[in-house]
Amino acid sequence: AMDTVTESDMAIAMAQAGGMGIVHRNMDIGKQVEEVRKVKRFVSAMVVNPITIHPDASLQEALDLMANYNISGIPVTEQNGKLVGILTNRDVRFADNPEQPVKELMTKENLITAENKVGREEAKKLLHKNRIEKLLIVDKDYKCTGLVTVKDIEKAILNPMACKDNKERLRVGAAVGTGTSGYDRALALADCDLDAVCVDTAHGHS
Fold first, then answer.
1. Burial of 180 (0-12, 13-18, 19+ CB in 10 A)
2. Per-residue pLDDT for 206 more than 60?
3. CATH architecture of 47-158
4. What average pLDDT does the structure give for the chain?
């Protein structure tokens, strides 16, 4: 966990090659958690609990989310999680009012969805048949629970030796220190499905 070497970009490259990066701890807890989340969201058979946005949110809020998480589309959901649309780059490409609500821009007709249990091959067929890049996953109450993208399927095919967890996400670890601060950091990291914790100390006996 050498300081300033392994962050999300390095960890992603290592996991794609079959290894596992340890994100260093020379940053505040929030930043380290975000670096881990970037790795876990980079590629998976299905993005579980994807980033979503409310229909009353502004275009600027949507653009900020897309930039922060490096994504090209966001499921649009009500407060209770019910899917009402999807906002993609195509929807916002020529929009010029940052205050315009998402509900006026989103695609809401003829949404292509699948149930939670959909497999990769079935998802590929649906994506191809409907000429779409994102397949929305919903439960019996039409709440958005996941997202399958063409990009993630392509990444999985290109990196057959990638080190992944049981949800097809890249594996990543993170360094923590000793003492109370290290414990607090480990708890925060555990909430983002970290795969391994490395106790980083100059003296192994201390």
1. exposed
2. no
3. Roll (3.10)
4. 90
